[in-house]
Amino acid sequence: MVAEAKGAEAGGLVFHPMDQFIVEPFFGDGAVSWYTITNSTVWMAIAVLAVFALLVMGTSKRAIVPTRMQSVAELAYGFIYKMVEDICGKEGVKYFPYIMTLFMFIVFSNFLGLLPMAFTPTSHIAVTAIMAFAVFFAVTILGFVKHGASFLELFWVSSAPLALRPILALIEVISYFVRPVSHSIRLAGNMMAGHAVIKVFAGFAAIAAIAPLSVVAITAMYGLEVLVSFIQAYVFTILTCVYLKDALHPHH
Amino acid sequence: MEGDIVQMGAYIGAGLACMGMGGAAVGVGNVAGNFLAGALRNPSAAAGQTATLFIGIAFAEALGIFSFLVALLLMFAV
Predict the structure, then answer these.
(1) CB contact under 8 A, A235 and B62
(2) φ and ψ at A98, to 5 degrees?
(3) pLDDT for the residue numbered A198
(4) CA distances from A15 to A196, A203, A205 (A)
(5) What separation in angstroms does the CA of A25 have from each of A31, A118, A211?
(6) For position A13, what pLDDT does the model report?
(7) Distance CA B33, CA A8 (A)
(8) For residue B72, how many C-alpha atoms fall within 13 Å in the half-sphere facing its CB?
(9) TM segments (chain B) (predicted)?
(10) Cβ partners under 8 Å of residue B24, min gap 6
């Protein structure tokens, strides 16, 4: 979709704000096949290595008085653990490793994508949709395995008046199937929009009269983006917990 | 490209779809504002409800994201 965006066809801009999202081979150029090492895969690998460095190497010493790395790792662990326990209850803790993995990968992809010249894998719906649909299918299958057909009571709101229940059931079913769509597009859309806005302001820097204003605007947007990167990872994780809770306790 | 009325309609539609973002903005502002109003009345209970706040914001934001999705579909898929 962004293939046609490449090139300087846009009037005042030297570059197109969407150019940064083009997936291209990391070594040389040529066609992108499924096995090609692209900038997307490289930055995903860097994110995984960074998570590994923080969580495995940071905690390898197991010091009583933690180093800075170790306390960040412990903080992240405790933060997600508490979230899973608060929302899903004791039974949800079994699925904590999956949720922790999702959170760490997303938060590191988002933060590393903020580096200049970096690529944000989570700005692509293809990446976030895989994660969202994995959560969706996992949660649905888990619900049916745990509760059998009574999992369908999730859609039958027994606290509502009887006359309203069929209508509510229809709405609940629709909202259930829309979940993976909103789950994935929320993350990708926020990442893509934020990076594009920064690039648009960067384009204004070429005009000398408003260049200082543009620098200020980029700085402000960058600060906001750091916040958004974390909050979107947090929201993705917390919604995963909420969906997991629905699968574990489908009765209203 | 010139005289392509379908393309023109798609672009106008994509622009109109962006109005949905205004609705999402009102929704998110409502959630956050009411949270703050409640939190100032009872600050001790606020810390336990931040998760609910973010879930509420996420759900309100989801509908704005659908308008973004419609715009994207009109721009690149239709």
Answers:
(1) no
(2) -65, -45
(3) 87
(4) 11, 7, 12
(5) 8, 14, 33
(6) 52
(7) 43
(8) 15
(9) 12-33, 53-77
(10) B60, B61, B63, B64, B65, B67
Q: Which residues of B touch A184 (CB under 8 A)?
A: none
Angle between the N-to-C axes of helices A165-204 and A96-113, in degrees from 0 to 180, rounded to the nearest 10: 30
According to CATH, what is the number of the domain B14-77?
A: 1.20.20.10
- pLDDT for B2: 66
Taking only residues 16 to 75 of chain A, the set having a beta carbon closer than 8 angstroms to any beta carbon of chain B reads: none
Q: How many CB atoms lie within 10 A of CB A42?
A: 16
Closest among B75, B68, B57 to A194, alpha carbons compared: B68
CB contact under 8 A, B68 and A185: yes
Q: For chain B, what are the domain ranges?
A: 14-77
Residues of A with CB below 8 A from B62's CB? 178, 182, 186
The burial class, CB within 10 Å (0-12 / 13-18 / 19+), for B65 is buried
Tokens 């008046």 belong to which residue? A161
Q: What one-character DSSP code corresponds to residue A17?
A: T
Report chain A (252 residues): mean pLDDT per 10 consecutive residues: 43 67 82 84 94 89 85 92 91 92 95 89 92 95 91 85 89 91 90 86 83 89 91 93 90 68
The pLDDT-based confidence of B1 (bands split at 50, 70, 90) is low
Distance from CA of A184 to the nearest CA of B (A): 10
User: What is the ipTM metric for this complex?
Assistant: 0.75
CB within 8 Å: B54 and A186: no
Provide the 8-state DSSP code for A25.
B
Q: pTM for the complete prediction? A: 0.85
pLDDT at residue number A16:
76
pLDDT value, residue A230: 93
* A138/A133 Cα distance (integer angstroms): 8
Choose, out of B72, B74, B75, the residue to mutate when testing the contact with A (most A CBs < 10 Å): B72
